[in-house]
Amino acid sequence: MTTHTTNAPVTMLDTPPARKRPDWLRAPRAALALPAWAWLTAFFVAPVGMVLWFSFGYKPGIFGTHANDKLSLDRYAEALSPTFFTTFQNTLWVGVVGTIICLIISIPFAYWLALKAPISRRGILLAMVMVPFWTNFLIRTIGWQIILAPEGWFSDLLQVTGLTSAPLDILFTRTAVLIGVVYNYLPLMVLPLFVAFDRVGNDLREASKDLGAGRWATFTSVTLPLAKPGLIVGVLLVYIPLMGDYITATVLGGAKGNMAGQMVANQFQTAQNWALGSAMAVVLILTILTTAAIAFFIAWLATLPVRHRRRLVLGDDR
Amino acid sequence: MSPQQPVRILASTAASRIIAQEYSRRRFLSFAAAAAGAGVLAACSSPSGEPAPGATGGALENNLSIYTWGDYDDPEVLTDFTAELGPDITLDSFNSNEEMISKLVAARGTSGYDIVVPTGPFIPQMIENGLLTKFNLDLLPNMKHVDPAFLGRDWDPNNDYSVIKAWGTTGFVYDKTKITRELKDWNDFLDAAQNEASGNFSVLDDPAPLLGLYFWSNGIDWNTTDPAHFDAAEDFLVNTLAPHISAFDSYPGGVAIPQAQQALMQSWNGDARIGILESEDPDRWQWVLGSPDTELWADNWAIAAGAPNPEAAHAFINYILDPEVSLRELDYNGYHTGVADIEDAARDAGIEMLDLIFFDDAQVETMHTQTITDMQQRIVEIWDKTKAAAGA
Amino acid sequence: MKQRLSVFDTSLKIWSGLVFAFLFAPIIVILVYSFNTGRLLVSFSDFGFESFAAIVTKPAIRDAVWVSIQAGVISAIIATLLGTLAGVALARRAGKWAPWFLILLVLVTVTPEIVDAVALLPWMVFLGQDVGLSLFDNGIVRLVVGHSLFSTAVVAYIVRSRLIGLDESLEEAAADLYAPPFKRFRQITLPLVMPAVLAGGLLSFTLSLDNTIVAAFVQVSGSTPWPVYVLSAVRTGLRPEIAAVSTIMLVLTLGALALVAVVLRRAGDSATDIAKTVGGG
To answer: Which fold is adopted by the domain B168-296+368-390?
Structure first.
């Protein structure tokens, strides 16, 4: 394809008149979203709606799975009964603590990657962060099971070097669950944080330093606020799947890794009580949404006095 | 625009590079579209799951799908079957009968499984709910090798739907280096679970044996229907035992015993045997048959309703009932297969740890089969709650 | 301006090194254990290459990997197609319908996988048995549908982010030059978002390869995907061949990734741009 300029003006006679297509053929761009909408409605909204419908029913006898002739909220009462409620609490605990640990680990790491690492190496380093992601997550978890084995080589190594006095006892405890979930979701936190810190760039930070702000002040008033969107994305990308994940927890935590997802799975896989399982599933979704909303509300509240005092408008706020 | 005129485009540098490469992109897109179309067509044209009405002794199909307990069949037996008779075998495993039944009920015939392996007491209800198809007994001549004591059990008096695969019992295994005293019965088991082995012991991931722990150690018939018994069981399991449970594991012989992950494990006899034999130091493990009472379970071969490969299914069941094949199965999974005279054959073949496979009459007296009662739902509920409480 | 290597910078470097070690520890362990010739994966007995042969000799493993690849490719294509179109629509023609669609996408993202799984199985059985669409009794179809939901939302979001950052002037210029809408889309819009589309496609494929929970519920025996095979093996004793196959798949995925990176590089994106695209702009 050649590109060259000429002085010949383009007149109306040179170009053919625009073909007038009938109105109904000039479909609005919105129609582009229609296939996705249809697909998601057919295979997401409808089935999940069905689950919602099941949650108001009950289990009719040993071999029945669900029945909806009598609607009630009893299944929700059952799902929130003390024994099962503790499972939701555990799941919440693991979810929140796991996300916080991911955040703590990722912020310095992403900061270094985006702002301190040599630019030529950045691509390779990023790829290296994602490489674990490309192994099957169950197999990664098995890798941890091997490492944490009480009679395995790592345990022996720790004992020989004197770092621990007894065989490693982490497997089948809450700590193992945390290690597993943090490991599996770390790349999902690092990537958005990297993008966010990268967007901050060095210019504004250097300007802030030139104006006399210390390292910490620069970080809190320039870097962090600008990186906020990325932080939010990272937290959500980790928290939400973490709450629903139960396989990592079961493999590494055994009984202590009983998460809400496992409970729902039990109801559908063994207990054949779809009504109760559906109620638990709905409670799980609501828990995730509510806690996320509460967290953001608290964060927003916390920054209110700061924002009011120091109204600092920086760059493009996209 | 006439084709002879050159196209004049005013664009930024970035865009002009992209526009210049537009044709290669277009080629990529059309290729992607073609590939997608081909993929969709390929997916659409796979063979449908229409089940054959029943086996008539015709030609064997190419595949066979078995839904069974974990590590229950010698892989070499399976490859020999494929080599001799043709069908490729796919294995899938479950942890408990309830899980298997759930899957079949949810799938309503579309699960794709041909052979399923239910435990005896569950079979009548499976038949009633249309989850199994009848055997064509003409295709199973090797049934004559089965010890008559194991044919015609009360859950299937004429063997129309099932034939015995293996029977076994439930007990426990403990690590002698971690638990120094001798454990002899279920009460010792529960005691050690709350003391030396606290946080280091596992129970079967199966509802009935979990409740059995309470009933057997308290001298209650585990087929009771008295709600008071269940209340007491729930109280004990959820409030007293659950906090000490480290894992729910139906197959400790697979990983837990060889890796010494727990100090005390409830297990089935054959699985314990595999684990001990695979362990680096077999002498550190001690198997104890549950007492004073325990379970006698009998797993059976059965053909699922809607099985896509009924001919292959019959051929396989017939193949596995052959005494020699049966012996190889016993050697692999450590369970009594119910074939006549297999105990002598095993002794002659020098198979190890026979005391975990064959039991004398006095021991068999203490083993009781489960009956499915109205309390089945309660049993599963208590199992659920124990799991939830153990995770706290 | 040369920066002095302060204590702060060095400690950041050390921290990052530790994080990398943390990230790679299990991977290396699995890599090493794939050379185990024992019966159980977790107990290392001898060093050897036998377990690598399993992908060829054991039909169950071969089939599982093949089913995973099939489902991955098809669901990635579907998710990319649907997601790209939706992302373009959201970025360029966001009208009154846009908030509702965004809510739908958010719901899809927020729903835990287990809920998708327990909802899809009865639904597909219903479609297959009661409505009579026997297409949904097919294992690959079920897997593709299950994997494509979350991926569609992800691709839509990535494409939208990418496109919103780009000026609409190029498309307007094309319109001024009398290009019909479809041609505008094909020749201008699509090339502009191609990096996002490719990134989204790759992400969809990866997510599909890894998808365990939905697959475990909806799969039909005979079309068992790889993660479900591993899941059932976890219960009954893993063999070293699973680690071996995992290593092979990792190498293959790295190769595909390198290919995509080369393509994107040639389109002018730097490594940072690629990461930004995948991370959502």
So the answer is: D-Maltodextrin-Binding Protein; domain 2 (3.40.190)
